[in-house]
Every structure is written in C-alpha cells, then in structure tokens.
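Input record (one chain):
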Amino acid sequence: MWKTALLLILSIIVIPTLGFIYDEPLTEQEWEMLKPVLITYGVATSVVFILSSITKNYSQVDKLWSIIPIVYAWEAAFISDFDDRGILMAVLVTIWGLRLTYNFSRRGGYSWKFWEGEEDYRWSILQSRKEFNASWKWVLFNLFFISIYQMGLIMLFTLPIIKSVVGTPLNIYDYLLTAVFIFWVVWETVADQQQWVYQKEKYRQLDNDEELKGKYKVGFTHTGLWGLVRHPNYLAEQAIWITFYFFSVSATGDWLNWTITGCVLLCALFFGSSDFSEGISANKYPQYKVYQTKVGRFLPKFKGGFKPSD
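The corresponding structure, as predicted from the sequence alone:
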C-alpha cells in the first residue's frame, strides 16, 4: 500500500507539472479563477488533517468529496462573470454533489457534530496492517495521502471548468455532454439505491437473527447493475468526470490540455481502491472470487453473469 500511495502522491505532482509545461500558459482569467480554488483547497486540506488527527476518524475527506467540488465550480463561475458554459458546468456539479451528499448522509456519514459520523471501514483495516505499526507512519500517510493527495484530486477533477470558460458560445457538443453527464448521474443513483436496498435488507435479517435467504445469502450486492459490472458506482464516477473534462475540449477545440490530470488520477485511484475493497470482500464472502471471474470490474464481460451457488 505504501508503494501505491507514494506512486499516486508523485503522480499528482508530476502529471500537473508536465501539463503546465507542455500546454499553453494559463491566461490571466484562468489564473484569477484558479487562485480562490487553491486557497479553498489549502484551507480544506488543513481542516481535514487536523480534524482526522484529533478525532481519529479518517473519513473527513469523504464528508467533503461531494460538497467541495460545488464550491470550486461556483468560485470559477463567479470569477468568469457567470459565463454560460461556466454556469452549466457548475449546475451539473451541483446536481452530482447534492445526490452524492444525500447518499453519503443516509449511510450515517454526517453528524450534527460535523467531525464525527461513520468512518469508512477500510481505514481501520489498513491502519492495522504491519506497514503502519509505528504511529508516525500513519500520521504521514494521513497527511500526504488521505489529506493532501485526496483533497488535491478532488480539486483537480473539478478544474476543467477553468479551461472551459474561454468566451466561446455553447454548442451542440456541450448539450450532448450534458446529456451524457446526466445519464451517468442517473446510473450512479440506481447503483447506489440497489446497494442500499440490498444491504439494508441483509442487515435487517441479521439483526433479527434470521437465516439469510435467497440472494442475501451471498452477502454482497450482485444483481441489477451489480450483475453487469462489479463496481457500477465507481464506473459512473469515473465516467462523470471524464465527461466533465470534455467540456474543456468542446470549449477550446483541443483534445488534450492540463486539466485532464484530474480524471486520469481519479481512474487510477478507483482502480487501486477497488483492488483493496475486493481483497477484503474475497476474504469475507466465499463466492466473491467466482463473482470476480464472471463479472467485469468496470466493463461487462458478457459471460453469462454470476449465478450464486446454494
């Protein structure tokens, strides 16, 4: 895990730097939009690190994952004097963020004591590994990976809005991208709802000391969109921010610019995160390894699907 974290931390420095070097220099307007975003990032990262260190709840970033992109987007839209494309992109980010915030909230992610709330179970598992047997190692991991890297990633995948506000009018590609963006938000909504319904019923049966029956006996969500791919929510999240990047392509006519960094690093993060999650699931659920062979991680395999054994 250390090697993966160091690679990701290095990539968040190297890739944007290369992008700045080989892409066109930022315009004065782009710099003006970037400044308040960077200030917000610095403040938010500091708060996340301090709160997580004090409370020992390392899901502080998760609480901001769906909220702070809304702040970044509207900061950029405001500095752009509410450019049409900037408003459109900020509205789309707001739709995405409100939906994801609701989903995180119903799982117990927030509390009226904002520094509390449910912690991602994976952090405690990771912290218990021998790589972190010295407390200072976990402090550094929390500082550089959980706080600086993840908060930086959230900022980066929102930054295409800065490249998209260039004064060019909205066009047919913007409207097509809007439709694609909304499609993936709906997909993610359905995936999250299917998982919510499955887990809620499974734990209802367990809490009532009932024997798990039917599809709940398997232990993990594997029907609906989860029968097409193993991580339909992760697939949607990546697709949403790749689509968001293409607004900058629509605005500039250039297929490649430095703001692609965010969606590229997001895909890398989800690949590593899904590896870690699946390792836990494979040890916890006997049929999960079979599920992995039958159902693709992010893309369908079309091999007849996963059929649980009795």
